[in-house]
Amino acid sequence: MRSRRARNAVGLSALVIGLTTAAVAQAQLDGAQDALDAAGSSWNFGNTNGVRRPPLSLIPEGEADRSVSGFGLDDAALSPLGPAVDTSATLWINDLQFASDSFSTSNGILTAGPVVTQGVSVTVQHSLVINAPVLRSLISFTNSSGSPVTLNELEWIFSEVGGDENATRHTASGDAIFNVDDRWTISSDTDGTTPPTVPVVLYVLYGPGSPLETTSSAAVRVYQVGAPSNFQRGMQAIFGPITVPAGTTRRLLFFTGLYQTNEHALAASAAFSQLTSCAFFGIPTDQYNQILNWTLSTGNPADECVRVNLTSLQR
Fold it and tell me: pLDDT digit string (tens) for 18-36?
């Protein structure tokens, strides 16, 4: 499967090229993109990541459709291996996909939304961990009403370029089967005996200890991106139900890393058992204390945060 963007990101600007009035709406879907880059990795975002689900799709898990709005990763790559994921980091709230044409980057943080849906205001923010090929994704749900709002199901989904050639190589529970007991999982197209043809992906879904929210369902088969239909390998993590009390904000925090080997990804996973890791540095304290899937109530890491095993180890 080939990246739709073909590495044609153009910095941090949104592009709309050569439009006629009748083509403006489609061009907003096709042309707008923001990018984040660090440590040999590049992450390209846009609102062209819509997915049709049944009954509009004949495929049970659904299929990507660029004519449908949906905010997420157009693609992500690690040099020199190339792209790893496509139509990814998509967010679903009660089976409705998050979409926003309103997104921009400021001070290294890409923000999409807010979008009001299902009784809450939803904002998606992405940034890159210090000097590491690791994406940090903070999802915020704000309830401005006078009554609590319960979100029954929240889905976080990635589609992998490696397709069905990819497989789970390591998990937090020590086996190669991804399920709800795994705080993190590693997927790649190699068992370690041959070099990978696409980057190894580390997904980190919740923290150690006893966070308020952990996954309620997990899967490695996701919606189809491109053809043939067996290109449906990826990562799906479902959370919920989550109740957002009146007048409050609740958040979920995820990490995604790209690596050249399974061993490098496994070494990096250790950073997410240490809450003083630089992976958490820079999150404002008021937000830090509202995150449900990590036990972070002790406050933000100090300036001397621990830089443990987060880099790609490729040099």
Answer: 222 223 233 333 345 688 8
